[in-house]
Amino acid sequence: MGGSKSILANWRIIIAQILFLLLGLGLIEYIVRAEIVGPLYLSKPTQVIDEIIGLFTNGIIFHHLFVTLGEFAAGYVLSAAAGIGTGLFLVLVPRAESFFRPFLSALLAVPKVTIIPLLMLWLGIGLSHKVAIVFLFCFFTIAFNTITGIKQTADNHLKVAKVFEATKFQTITKVILPSAASTIFVSLRVSAATGLVGALFGEMIASKDGLGNLLVQATSTYDTAKAFAIITVVTIVSVLIIAIIDLLEKRVVLKWKSY
């Protein structure tokens, strides 16, 4: 009985959210049609939908989408591996953390946007440039959250592992990482969104391909509807990436809990 009530409540929330979204889109449609706001500054949702359909129908979007996703995936995977590895190393070697943490904090404080021109000078405007940008946008968030998560591991769990004479590898894989999993996955979700923004930003500055370059083309010709269509596609892609990470989290956490 309680389960059915919970499901009903969830459906009510979903319906309310859909109605709220439709109301907002309807209001924007009215504002533009009534010329309260000019079409140069805001586009009708119906026109944006037509643009999205057109982008996928003529196939223009697919090449740019695959380029952006490739850049994002490479930078994101590298940053996740390096961030988790760095966080784990610094916690397990306290002297290393004491030595390197000030440098990491200083690098974290540097605005990433200011480094992009230097990366262009060092790496050119190809794939490595975008991958490096995504890496910088993601690495520090993952590393610091990994450190925080690992430090929250309960002392009792570590003592039990020691009593059962667990090896260092077993302690890491069956005690430390499972305890820090929730915090690590929070950073992976946040970094997924910022990493995608980093890839787009790099493409907007210097690239011949990608969704960022496509967005620059739309804005440079004052094609507001197309610009909003590309932004909508990027938003949907970002939501899907985060959904995949959520699914991965459930599977990983459940697997660790089954040990």
From TrEMBL:
Record membrane topology: Multi-pass membrane protein
Compartments reported by the entry: Cell membrane
Domain (ABC transmembrane type-1): residue spans on this chain: 65-249
InterPro entries in the cross-refs: MetI-like (IPR000515), MetI-like_sf (IPR035906)
Keywords in alphabetical order: Cell membrane, Membrane, Transmembrane, Transmembrane helix, Transport
Sequence similarity: Belongs to the binding-protein-dependent transport system permease family.
Protein name: ABC transporter permease
